[in-house]
Amino acid sequence: MSLGSWAERTTPDGAPTAVVPSMDASTMKLRAGSPSSPAVHAVDLAKRYRHTVALRGLSMTVRRGEVFGFLGPNGAGKTTTVKLLLGLARPTSGEALVLGSPAGDIETRRRIGYLPELFRFQHWLTAREVLGLHAKLLRLKRRERCADEALATVGLARRGDDKVASFSKGMQQRLGLAVALLGEPELVVLDEPTSALDPVGRHEVREIVRGLKQRGSTVFLNTHLLEEAEQICDRVTVIDQGRAVATGTLEELLGRRSVRLRVSGLPNGWWHCYARFGTWALEGEWLRLEGAATEVVPDLVAAVVAAGGRVEAVIPEHQTLEDRFLELLEAR
Amino acid sequence: MSPTVTIAALTFREAVRRKLVAAFLAITVALVGLSAWGFERLSHSRSLSSAEVAASLPQALILFMFMFSFVVALSASTISSPAISAEVESGVLQAVATRPVRRFQILLGKWLGLAVVLTAYAAAVCALEFVVADLVSGFTPPDPAGAFGYLLAEGLVLLTAGLLLSTRLSALATGVVAIALFGAAWLAGVVGTIGADLHVAALREVDSIARYVVPTDGLWHGTIYALEPRSILANAIGHGSPFYAGSPPSWAYLTWCAVWVAAALTAALIVFERREL
After folding, report:
1. Tens of pLDDT along A154-176?
2. Under 8 Å between Cβ of A245 and A12
3. Distance from CA of A99 to the nearest CA of B (A)
4. Tens of pLDDT along B210-223?
């Protein structure tokens, strides 16, 4: 199978299908650097460290321009995957293409921004000097302007001339984000980007990620903060013990949906006449319609009103990512 | 600017900004002051004849330079030991290594930056000490440039060894091993001198082998030779002492030293290239 063809595979839990990539050498050569190639395309990536198996045949595809969440519990293999994709470590077996080139390709690195999980910079430099160093390594023109813009984006415009040593952990993470944004990269890999940030900082990072998406960049977000992923990711892959256990859009992953309803003016048990909409459950003053999609809400409300009822509240709900995440891990 | 030069400039700036150079210069100024006092006492000694003073001044300079040779060795191992390992452990290197820069450019840049620091330091040490010796006692070594060259080469050997070790070992372990190698090489030189005096071939062999395995002591003897005036050499004053050199290192030996540094640097490049960050 070529890089351009995709096979649908059912995930171990039987839920949403994952796009399973495969590749051969000739296709890799043809696709190298092509703007239509996926941002990340990994096939059967495995990594063993002496007695520890960090990855066991991970396959995944990240499409261009999407915010991709890479989720998993601690020790699932998230950071190992990032290191393999960036060429910091070599896979024991398997292959990966990043922006159409083999993982770690020198020239492709120019188009990638990376915020490491362990964000540490030369503490004896100022923030502006750190950015200047990375701008030099990227061979950017107008380096000072690029540094100023990156500092302003992450809210460090006034601290540019301060030594990194004087920065709090949160400020160092902001600086790391600024470094990752230098040169308007096509792919931005963020490894736990908000681990040291306060709620305001987290909100700002989410806005930055949305801005990157609007600009057309792909964002690979490695996180264990599910709320964060739920708010900004287009698609996610959940990994556990070095394997992908589910991949899909949030809509696909959080398939279990329901509608909560509060109605007055109808006799008790009225809902039995509306079994066609789904399974009803009584929860105090509320009724829950399990398995109902948002699309049924207008018909449901119209039916209740036609029967003489008063609809006081309608709340479409879906399973939270956290619930789904725990469900996936418990199923293994 | 090539990535190698960028990393070299960063490494040099780090040494200056973290006050490493300033600390070593402060120590050097203090030691040069001490040596000035020694030269002054020696050259104005009433208990020694002028011939004895003339013979003693070069030996005093050699002793002082031995002290500086140790400081150069210490600085070489101190600045090279954290160069790779500490940056990998702290995570600083990961951010740099994911940029469009090859591993060999990072390592070569670090070696170049540290070599510039070491060259500047060795030049400052030699210039200060030789000027002070001349001003206070009137003694000028016959080959000051040669003495500087051998001292620097000795430092570069240790710097390269430190960088090689730093690609695998922690900063602390690297520093300890590098200094231990320097000390062992010097001790082997002393053992060789004793062996030559006592005509014990096995002891001489220890020195001969050690000079090739870790060439710091062989190069130190080049520094000694460059500091000895002809009068000392002609009369073999100090013969049998570890601070006497009857001949300069041969070209073959100097070529070996260059090969040693190149091989150690290549080994460092290979190890670092393979290391997972």
Report:
1. 989 999 999 999 998 888 999 99
2. yes
3. 14
4. 999 999 999 999 99
Chosen from B6, B7, B99 to mutate, greatest number of chain A CBs within 10 A: B99
Mean residue pLDDT of chain A comes to 83
A·B CB contacts under 8 A = 64
CA distance A115 to chain B (A): 7
Sketch out chain A's domains with CATH numbers.
254-330 (3.30.70)
CA distance A263 to chain B (A): 58
Query: Residue A328: which residues within 8 A CB-CB, separation 6 or more?
Result: A13, A238, A240, A245, A246
Residue whose C-alpha is closest to residue B237's, from B45, B52, B49: B52
The tokens for A271 are 């809902």
Q: Which two tokens stand for residue A303?
A: 């039916």
Element spanning A73, H or E: none
Asked if the Cβ–Cβ distance from B91 to A120 is below 8 Å, we say: yes
Q: Which pLDDT score is estimated for B43? A: 85
Amino acid at B119: T
Q: Which helix (H) or strand (E) holds B23?
A: helix B20-43
Q: Two tokens at B194? A: 């004793």
- Note the pLDDT of residue A8: 33
CA distance A204 to A191: 16
Residue B216 CA, chain-centre distance (Å), reads 7
Q: Output the CA–CA distances (angstroms, integers) from residue B47 to B44, B59, B134, in the order listed.
A: 9, 17, 22
Model pLDDT, residue A24: 52
Q: Which residues of chain A have pLDDT under 70?
A: 1-35, 255-256, 292-293, 332
> Can you name the residues that pair with B247 across neighbouring β-strands?
none
Geometric angle at alpha carbon B185, from B183 and B189, rounded to 5°? 115
Contact A139 B100 (CB under 8 A): yes
Domain coordinates of chain B in residue numbers?
3-274
Average pLDDT taken over every residue of chain B: 90
CB A77 within 8 A of CB A60: no
Residue B128 in contact with residue A147, Cβ under 8 Å?
no
